[in-house]
Amino acid sequence: MKTYTGEHLEQIAFPLGGMGAGMFCIEGTGAFTQFSLRHAPNLNYEPNIFAALTVTGKKNISRVLEGPVPRHKIWNGIDGAARGGGLGGTNYGLPRFRSCEFEARFPFAQIKLSDDKMPVTAQITGWSPFIPGDADNSGFPCATVEYAFANASNEAQSCVFYFCSQNIVKSGKNGGDCVAPFSYGKHSGFMLAQDGSEECPHDEGYMIVAADAPDAAVNTAWFRGGWFDSLTMLWNDISEGQCRSRMFSPPDVSGGGTIAVPLSLAPGEIKTVTVNFAWYVPASGLRAGGEAKEPCCGDGCACSAEEKFYKPWYASRFDSCAETFRCYADGLGVLRERSKLFSDTLYASNVPDEITDAVAANLCILKSPTVLRQHDGRLWGWEGCGCTNGCCHGSCTHVWNYAQAVCKLFPKLERGMRVTEFIENQDADGHQTFRASLPLRPAPHDFHAAADGQLGGVIKAYRDWRICGNLAWIKRLWPKIKASLDYCAAVWDPDGEGVIRMPHHNTYDIEFFGPEPMCTTMYLGALKAAEEIADALGDGAAQKYRALRERGAEYVKNKLFNGEYLVQEMDFSGIDLTEPPKASFDRDLSNEARELIKKEGPKYQYGSGCLSDGVIGAWLANLAGLGDIMDPVLVSSHLKAIYKYNFKTDLHSHANPQRPGFALGSDGGLLLCGWPDDAKIPALPFVYSNEVWTGIEYQVASHMISAGLVDEGLQIVRACRARFDGKDRNPYNEYECGHWYARALASFSLLDAYTGARYDKAAEKFSVKPPAGGDASALFCFDGGYGTAGIKDCKAFYIKAEGETPPLPPN
Q1: Which of 146, 267, 402, 504 can pair with 451 through a Cys bridge, CB separation 3.0 to 4.6 Å?
Q2: Which residues contact 158 (CB under 8 A, 6 or more apart)?
């Protein structure tokens, strides 16, 4: 577990909240930021919400319960808008603790504060429930922050703990807001509220903040005035050690609320005050994606026509913010215990630290605004988050193909995503729209299918079947799966060669022309998956898929393998280069672009380059339990070439005219594509080729480790995590096209890659085979439970944390 101090606290922001339920972040200093409670990111929102401690005596000493303000905020504020303005409206000028340390053991974050002027030290623990297999309890729109105070002096100390918040749910309109006292059992605090209206029902929102202190004083009558009056008077109360309840009579409205809890600490004594948060925003104005021209085809469509806008799942479970808080508070002890059990199991893994670090850091994606869970409980995701909007809608298949966490941690939710792909997103011809609409409903079919996205869906359907073991589930989807694969074959492999030849859209947001290994290995994996499903269901199509796959594997071996790695066979036959096709999202072709295309062919290819995604189909097939889909010698050779040509320990000499912010200068990282020195590089290779994406780094590293290239894979993981050191980048926010980018969930596959653990529930077969040999153990999750799987002294073992126990193999 890493400890961050000093300049490495600068960028840390750790998400707290439920899966698909909104979040806020606790920073490395203990500050609260990025309140994103209204079903959209709001990453520049840093309201006046803070905790403080006053030690009373001859001369009171007061401190905000945070470390020093990060240096980058002094000039920029949180969003750059405050430059030159003196940071008015912030609380940055209030005294803080001098010394600060941050550690995280997902889903727990811990901050330690001390100050030589303060006789009391503080330890802050922020967390929100996360329990494998229990999506509902992992989806509370709630969080908890625990403040533990230790008397480090030789004298008894009298203190007052404060928690203060402006009304952070207040909308921009005038009126309809209020701040009122709230109590439930031993919990005392306040509710922040904003009414909705007939014109804007989604303005409605609430947040309860309450401490587990029945003797707390609650002030919901903040001083009102101009300039800095309110914050000045609030700090006067804090510095004086005031502890009294106040409230306005309607129609007067407070701008915020304060909880004050008196504490007495004997020498060496530790006391903890727990503050719980619950929020409730029952409606939204969010509607993403287009409209289908025809109703959803086939049986199984689970969309809900009556929901015009996204409605969160928790609003179907709870009727109010108060009910949400009560349910959360009643179960808090068990929720913490179960979340800590998961955390302890994850961090007890006997794998290299960089693997645990990568896995844990990216589970934060599931608490970020990247993920939404609609009213019927189904999961939906953006690719990532902008500052105020989701980035690239629709559980995009060619991005979420990489994500390997949900299928293990919450397999029912993952199966729901397959239903979306094959039902709402697929038409009668088998064409899949790779972006799902929200609320989930039949999607339009007015753009290319994505070859890698659609083919990956077939492999994932097989994987999800083997995880759940439910033959009836895969049988229901099988006609749709067949239609999808047959569409792919007809459109991209019309001659039945077993390779993807025709122009095909993919995750790089362009089209490749001619057979190339990324989408072709996806095709081979999909054919193998369909073959296995068909065999299990007694469908004679299995033989057709097997023969096609075998032809494709031979083609790859004989035509795409250059003796070291797999390359693209650029095929422009049938294309009129005098009137060339325009790549997706490209501008209208200029005269110079037309001349270049006449010379080289369509833009954005890679030709003789070594693609980091070049054997991704073999990786995904291996994770699904399909075994080899092509010659494993070729796969191993390509992986070695990726390491040779694409992995860089330093990027000072690397030219990247694309998006360099992911990795540059002294950063190390894995390039999306590399070319040997003597290779011909297209003048305009595909648009992201010089970039570094964490999701692809983890995909490649996981594949290398499982193939026995353990040291090479670990070097890639180390280089990736070294970039997210807190100084320049947030360790808990790996970004690509947006914050908390879903592709980075490929990191979860590192655990099973290192241990070689697998459980095929359909076959009731459990095995552990570390590729490096020797002893290894790690967190292992499956449909029905989780625990620790490993091997010791050549004997496989499993230690149950929760749920079932898989059948151990004979030793």
Answers
A1: 504
A2: 55, 56, 57, 262, 263, 264, 265
The answer to whether 718 and 692 have CB atoms below 8 angstroms apart is no
14 vs 27: CA distance, rounded Å: 6
Coil vs helix vs strand at 727: coil
How far apart CA 724 and CA 729 sit, in angstroms, is: 5
Cα-Cα end-to-end distance for the chain? 34
Identity at 410, one-letter amino acid code: F
- Phi then psi for residue 327, to 5 deg, are -65, -40
Q: If you write DSSP's letter for every residue of 219-279 in order, what string do you get?
A: EE-----STTHHHHHHHHHHHTT----EEPPTT---SEEEEEEEEEE-TT-EEEEEEEEEE
8: left (phi over 0), alpha (psi -120 to 50) or beta: alpha
Tell me the C-alpha to C-alpha distance, in Å, between residue 379 and each of 39, 420, 616, 738.
13, 9, 25, 19
Q: Is 581 helix (H, G, I), strand (E, B) or coil?
A: coil
pLDDT score recorded for residue 175: 72
CA atoms of 132 and 134, how far apart (whole Å): 5
Cα(95)–Cα(343) distance, integer angstroms: 34
Q: Which residues neighbour 584 within 8 Å (Cβ) at sequence distance 6 or greater?
A: 448, 505, 509, 510, 511
Longest CA pairwise span in the chain (Å): 89
Q: What tokens appear for 518 in the block?
A: 């990324």
CA dist., res. 300 & res. 368, Å (int): 29
Half-sphere exposure of 524 (CA within 13 A, CB side): 32
Identify the residue whose tokens are 């200029």.
590
SS3 599: helix
Average pLDDT of the chain to the nearest whole number? 95
CA nearest neighbour of 514 among 560, 459, 549, 553: 560
Q: How many angstroms separate the CA atoms of 616 and 366, rounded?
A: 23
Separation between Cα atoms, residue 233 and residue 196, nearest integer Å = 30
**397 touches 456 (CB < 8 A):** yes
Residue type, 200: C
The answer to whether 51 and 147 have CB atoms below 8 angstroms apart is yes
Cβ(309)–Cβ(201) below 8 Å = no
- What digits encode the pLDDT tens for the residues 326-355? 999 999 999 999 999 999 999 999 999 999
Rg of the chain taking only CA atoms, in angstroms: 28
- Which one-letter amino acid corresponds to residue 256? G
3-state secondary structure 395-445: CCHHHHCCCCCHHHHCHHHHHHHHHHHHHHCECCCCCECCCCCECCCCCCC
Secondary element (H or E) of residue 636: helix 632-646
Identify the DSSP state of 296.
Answer: P
Tens digits of per-residue pLDDT, 669-726? 999 999 999 899 999 999 999 999 999 999 999 999 999 999 999 999 999 999 999 9
- Residue identified by tokens 């996806």 is 522
| Packed helices 471-492 and 411-419: angle between N→C axes, nearest 10 degrees | 40
Contact call for residues 505 and 432 (beta carbons, < 8 A)? no
401 vs 391: CA distance, rounded Å: 17
Identity of the amino acid at 237: D
Q: Where are the alpha helices (DSSP H) in 469-608?
A: 471-492, 517-537, 541-555, 591-600
- As given in the structure block, the two tokens for residue 548 are 């096609």
Give 184-225 pLDDT, tens digit per residue. Answer: 999 999 999 999 888 888 899 999 999 999 999 999 999 999
451-468 helix and 616-624 helix, angle to the nearest 10 degrees: 20
Beta-carbon contacts of residue 483 (< 8 Å; ≥ 6 apart) = 426, 428, 429, 430
Among 354, 351, 402, 345, residue whose Cα is nearest residue 755: 351
What is the C-alpha separation between 132 and 783, in angstroms, rounded?
9
Nearest to 672 by CA among 601, 616, 740: 616
Task: Give the pair of three-digit tokens for residue 322.
Answer: 């108060």
